[in-house]
Amino acid sequence: RIQILFEVMDSTSYDRVRSNSLNIINRNGYQDLKSDLEQIFSATLNRVKDGCVKSGTLYKKGKERGCWLARHFMLDRTNRKIIYYDKANTQGQKQLGLIPLDGCFVLMVDEKLVDRQNCLHILYRSGRAMRSIYVAGTTVRETVEWFYAIRSLQTQLGYSGNCVDTVFESYLEKTPKDGKGQWRKRWCILVADRIFYYKNILDPFPKGEVKLSKTDTVEKLHCIPKHVKSGADYIFTLTTSNRTYYWGTPSEELCTTWIQKIDRVIKDLYV
C-alpha cells in the first residue's frame, strides 16, 4: 500500500554495484530493519505532510582531508534546500552549505566505497558541474529516515528527477545475465555515468549497478534473440565490455527516451 502511494506521488519515469561485490550499509542492521521499512516510510511521509522539517546531526565526509565531521542538517521546505551548519544551535551561525532539492539525487552507498556504514551519497548540480557529498547516520534507521524524508519532500514539492540533465528514473523490465531467465521489474535510475537498479521504488538499497564507459553501445532491439524470453513489449540493449544487458519497457516512447539518455551519457564521456 505504501509502495503504491509513493508511486502515485511520484509518477516520474525514474543498475547498482554487482551483487557479488555489494556490502551495502550494515547488512545485519538492515535485515533487522527490513520488516519495518513501510512503517518508517509511512511515519516519515506523514511528518513531511504535516509540515515538519527534519533536522539532526549527520557525519559529513570532508572534501579535502576526507575526515568525517559532525554537522547539523536541516530540510528547508520553504526554500527547497538541504542546509547544513557546524552546530545544532543555528542562531547566528553561517551556513556551511546549501543543496537544492530540485535536481538533487540521494542513494544508499556501498560502505566499501567510503569506508563508512550507514552512508548516503547526495548528488546535485552546482553551476554546470555535478557535485557529490557523503553523509552518514549513526544507525541504519536514522539513515533510512533521512533517505525517505528527502525523497518524500521532493515529491510533494513537485520534484522531478529530470531537473538534472543526467538523471532519469522509471520502472524497467530486466533479464538475468545474457538475457536468460524471466524478466524482472526493477526501479532504474540513470545518474551521471551509472545506472542503478532496485527491487522497487520504495527500496533504498540497490540490487546492482552498471557503470557506463565510452566504448558501450545502446540500441533498440527489433528482433528478439532465441535465448531471450519474451515478456517485454519494447526492448533495448546496453552492451558493455563485460556483458549485454536487456531492458524492457511498456511503451516505445519510454524505450526511446532511455536510449537517448544513455547514449548522451556515453557520448559525453568522450569530452
Secondary structure elements and pairings:
Elements: H1 2-9, H2 27-33, H3 37-49, E1 55-61, E2 68-76, E3 81-85, E4 97-100, E5 105-108, H4 111-114, E6 119-126, E7 129-136, H5 140-156, E8 168-174, E9 184-191, E10 194-198, E11 208-211, E12 217-221, E13 234-239, E14 244-249, H6 252-268
Antiparallel strand pairs: 1-2, 1-7, 2-3, 3-4, 5-6, 6-7, 8-9, 8-14, 9-10, 10-11, 12-13, 13-14
Task: Name the descriptors.
single chain, 271 residues, alpha+beta, 7-stranded antiparallel β-sheet, elongated, disordered N terminus
Question: What would a concise description of this structure say?
Answer:
The chain has 271 residues and is of the alpha+beta class.
Question: Would you give an account of this structure?
Answer:
The strands form two sheets. The protein has a seven-stranded antiparallel sheet, with helices on one face. Residues 1-28 and 159-165 have low confidence and may be disordered. Helix 3 (37-49) packs across helix 5. The chain is of the alpha+beta class and 271 residues long. 24% of the residues lie in helices and 32% in strands. The longest helix is centred in the middle third of the chain and has 17 residues, at 140-156. The chain is built from six helices and 14 strands. The chain has helices spanning 2-9, 27-33, 37-49, 111-114, 140-156, 252-268, and strands at residues 55-61, 68-76, 81-85, 97-100, 105-108, 119-126, 129-136, 168-174, 184-191, 194-198, 208-211, 217-221, 234-239, 244-249. It starts with a helix and ends with a helix. Strand 2 (68-76) and strand 3 (81-85) form a beta hairpin. It is elongated.
